[in-house]
Prior knowledge:
By secondary structure, the chain is an alpha+beta fold. The chain has helices spanning 146-164, 172-184, 221-231, 234-248, 298-309, 319-335, 354-370, 380-397, 421-424, 433-446, 463-476, 479-490, 517-537, and strands spanning 2-7, 14-20, 23-31, 49-67, 79-83, 86-91, 94-100, 105-107, 110-118, 122-130, 186-187, 192-193, 216-217, 259-260, 271-272, 286-287, 399-400, 405-406, 447-448, 451-452, 461-462, 502-504, 509-511.
Amino acid sequence: xxxxxxxxxESLVLRTEFEGPDGAVAVTDFMALAQGSLxxxxxxxxxxxxxxxxxxxxxxxxxxxxxxxxxxxGLALPWLEAREGVVEMRAGPTVLRLESDxxxxxxxxRITAHFxxxxxxxxxxxxxxxxxxxxxxxxxxxxxxxxxxxxxTLEGWRSWNELHVSYDGEAxxxxxxxxxxxxxxxxxxxxxxxAAPTTSLPAHLGRGDTWDYRYVWLRDLSFxxxxxxxxxxxxxxxxxxxxxxxxxxxxxxxxxxIVLGSDGRRDISEHQLDHLAGHRDNRPVRVGNQAWDQRxxxxxxxxxxxxxLLREQIPEFDPETREMLRDFADRAAAxxxxxxxxxxxxxxxxxxxxxxxxxxxxxLDRAVKLSAxxxxxxxxxxxxxxxxxIHATVVREAWSDSAGAYAxxxxxxxxxxxxxxxxxxxxxxxxxSRMAATIRHIDEGLSQGPLIRRWKDEQxxxxxxxxxxxxxxALMGDVDAARERFEALNGLANDLGLMGxxxxxxxxxxxxxxxxxxxxxxxxxxxxxxxxLGRRSAPGE
Length: 541
């Protein structure tokens, strides 16, 4: 049985100790970094290798290894071939190669190994993904042995941390762990940060909300940028913005996708894998995400807010980024009166969502402030006019007398946690009487312990919204309540400091795709908010 596990230092190398009646072993698992890949370059060139090293700690332990590979989401059963000390698994466009420093057995559709480990001994396994069409990729032995890959991976993480993980704010250890998680979720080739590395883990049991999150959401951009700026460094944030401009291409009348592949792909159309049962029999299993084709007006604000956040780190926007920012401001000015799917990606109907209008206001507000850096021929006065009209419209149309709060959509009286963004993006101060009432009503009406739900009928708490409430309470001046909730939320991370999208307070289970960028971003940003407010109120500040 596993007795304890932890990451090795500030890395994603996982060490787990197992205790048995006759001894104990340590199992080290990691995705390998390339030898000589250091600092900002980690992950740009990778061996595509998953490594496991088993070491004897005490006594003698008998172990069994079993590898059952399935390709194309289980549709293809691979051929197994042992040759030259390795076993290759081949099917379709994929080849997996298992290397081991001891004997393995082929048993029809699986690879097994039975072995004993004494104290001081070790056994290693390296599973590599090989492109069968790339002759240069066929020989990966030059990437190193398991122990050499471990040394290179730890050195890569150490070098990255020397440049990045120096944050010393509230709950600094968890914030630093979250920064490492964000780096692990980053496609280093492009700087794009995916929402999660998994698909189809249910947000609720038995409700079919099993989505594929292995993509990049524009909606998450400004929150992620701030978190990278706070707990990592501006280099990562800068690369992310450049990736977006290059991926979207030349501005035009085309639909702006709200989700992209980490390589910049637009079309990630969704389909279901009906032959798979799903996690705990929760169907359907999905590949792709149809949200890419939705209309979500808030994304323009996310992108322009990101650019504004990085204004001091980026001396001059490149031409592609400049054109993208101008185009997004114009789109916000022209389209804010239209309904959309909202930031929660409603699939049944479009509405006039409050948060979408607020983020259109953000787009125009930031565009006006950045106008001197966006080139010639800008209608700044037009942007200002539309910005002010959005503000007046939201204040008038989003307020619900019956709810005593700003509602989630115009003409509604339903509370929605997304309106907590209003003070966080400087649309209204948290101390504004109506905004303060909204924060209190959301706290009272949507809370489940330290968590809040996105809306009343939702069963589980949504982690980033709960951290938004922490920020709002702090901005209202109730720092003690904010810190108490913040500490309770941090306690919901698992033993490795990882967070999912949602949390079921009844069962105590982390729910949704995992680990979730949005949740780790929320933690970092709430930590920064509490830290900054604490410094401002400190004597002598």
